[in-house]
Amino acid sequence: MKNPVFPILLLPLLRRLPHCLSIAFVLISLSAAPIAWAGFQERFNAFEKEDSTRPLLEFRLLADQGNALAQNYLGVMYAMGQDVPQDYQEAMQWFRKAAQQGEALAQFNLGLMYAKGQGVPQDFQKAVEWYRKAAMQGQGKAQFNLGLMYAKGQGVPQDYQEAMQWFRKAAEQGNAKAKNFLGEMYAEGKGVQQNLQEAMRWFHEAAEQGEALSQFNLGLMYAKVKGVPQDFQAAMKWHRKAAGQGHAKAQFNLGLMYAKGQGVPQDYREAMNWYHKAAGQGEAIAQFNLGEMYEKGLGTPQDYQEAVRWYRMAAGQGYVKAQNYLGMMYAEGKGVPRDYQEAMKWYRMAAQRGVALAQHELGMMHMQGKGVMQDQVRAHMWFSIAGEKGNRRALESRDTLVGSMTPEQIAEAQKMAHDCKESDYKKCD
Does the pTM of the predicted model rise above 0.70? Predict the structure, then answer.
């Protein structure tokens, strides 16, 4: 009925994070900031050892006296709810006091609060303003986030060259995330001439530091990217490292390589294992492939009900191939009672996303009156649309149907097909 679908997943680079604000609030680093006076480090160490009652009072006293490091630390405590009730507005007040004294850590944290809309309305321009102040003082995380703002066009006009400059500054300080994004920009040729060797260099540096995104990107580069010598064993190595850190797409690709026997002996059971891990994190393509494995009985006993369950999960996330397959399961009564109306529902979803197989099946159901009133005109419409996408069966079905249609019906069907396509599948019913 269907051919197994095991595509290598390629992510569009620079689009994975809505905004890279996963960087935790920066706690005071006494090795990176000047100490105001003797005894401060001892108080900090006592706090870190969870002897927090007395040090908390002393930090507040220092903060009230204008010590910027203590003010920033109190801001972190309130932002994270560490030994005090979480209070973003209180955190903002302490970050602002320290930031206005020029404390780079607090300037970064203030930018972070504006970017996330915590304790203040979200304001990317203000975030950029405070990131820039901290970045100009050499604060690496601020340099990275400022680069990200330029790459995404948040709070500033999108400018890949400017993004590159800030990523590079952060990377020079050892920031692994910045190294990864430098690699991505070299790989895509954004803000710089495309250079896959330079991309690989930055990915390797970040991956060796344990950056999961870079480990995943290296796996992709070795597995599929033209211009990089294909090395499935290296791809497996780096996907495995990223997958071990819980990277869902790396887990999926690891399963894919086991399913295809790339870099390892083909092993459907191991493929299932990794698909399950990725699917459990909501990875739709892994859910779809799991469904197909259960349907085909690959690495597991054949189980149509389990196949339907995973197809439904992926289809519910809008994964179009799963929508089409779910339609087929209902039409054929596999894993579910046969239900042509339910089949029509899922076929229609996939057909409106341009899937020729689903368009052909819709045509067949209209022609045969399954799940819908028999309608040769609408059947002809769907056959024509699918045929234009190269579906030969649809063209054969249309040619068979034409013999029982009037010229007026054919003309109407042709107009409907035209209107359906012109409306981007919004005017097809």
Answer: yes
